[in-house]
Amino acid sequence: MKTKIIFLIIISIILSCSTSKENRKIVHQEIDKSQLGEELNYVYMVVGKKAVTKLELDRITKLSGFISKIENRKIEPEDFLIEKLIVEQVAEEESIIVNEERIKNEIEKRRLGANIKSMDEFQKVIEKETGLPFELWKEVLRYQLLKQQIIQIRIPIPQPTEKEIEDFYQKHKREIGIEVLFREIVFPKTYTIQEEKKIYEVVKDVYNQLQQNPNQFSEIAKNLKENVSPYKYGGGIRLWTLITDIAKEDQIIAGAVFRLSVGSISPVFKNQNGQYVIVKVEGKRPIPLDKVQELIRIRLYYDKAEESFQNWLEQKKRDLIIKKLS
């Protein structure tokens, strides 16, 4: 009898434990995070016939920040969402197609233009510079390509006038850049301590002469046997040169002539090649209009294109029914 009672107690305990485990399992199934996530993705607004979800708006928020940066205009996420939907709708009406192959070709062109060897490296550069995942950046690229084609097909762009170009040049002279007229003396590169000591004695002697009489620069540059500058026989003169072009050759020399005032001689310094150099600035001036006229024309044209696009967009928005549901 006791054995039977003990057996029944054991069976009861086992059933009790089993029921408890099952209850815990059911409770665990009821708390499903993925289900909760789906409940948050509700329809946020309706633009024309297109319903926009909350998750889609969250994605657009990341894109709008990037668009604001690259197009130098402040745009709110909702406004960019509407703009993007209008562009996509009009592109569909005009049979403008920017498929995966078109985007792939554009990416390849940009990769080669940036001189980046592999696609993996290009993706890393894009993600680092933009702060966007590569797939989101591709979405921005697709939008830009659609927008460019719509501007070409649908929107008339007025050409910049000569007065507009002249006014822009006068307003932005300093930003456009400068040209420099300067002379240089470049000493041979040395490879041993003995050569270094020997050439430095010559450098010091030349510099002392120039300090005593800066007007001797041309004669010294022309007659100094240690001067290896390709401009030696013209007295070391470098005719009017864009500071940006000098920087492409040697950033250290560009920095030196940029900082010097007209008529002054630099201290002795070493260029990027490790050679001693002395320079004298003979003149500085803003880049002449005729050298930058076409660049200004292109800049103004793109400004006008963006302005015309925004005007066209505002008209499209007025014709569109937009309902915000929350």
Key features?
alpha+beta, Triger factor/SurA peptide-binding fold, Chitinase A, domain 3, 2 domains, three-stranded antiparallel sheet, elongated
Describe the protein's architecture and organization.
This protein has two domains: 43-158 and 301-324, Triger factor/SurA peptide-binding fold (Orthogonal Bundle), CATH 1.10.4030; 178-286, Roll (Chitinase A, domain 3), CATH 3.10.50.40. The longest helix has 30 residues, at 289-318. The strands form two sheets. A four-stranded antiparallel sheet has the order 4-3-6-5. With 326 residues, it is α+β, with helices and mostly antiparallel strands. It has helices spanning 2-30, 33-40, 54-70, 77-93, 100-113, 119-130, 134-154, 162-171, 173-176, 193-212, 217-223, 243-249, 251-259, 289-318, and strands at residues 43-47, 50-53, 178-186, 237-242, 269-270, 276-286, 322-324. The chain contains 14 helices and seven strands. A hairpin with a 5-residue loop joins strand 5 (269-270) and strand 6.
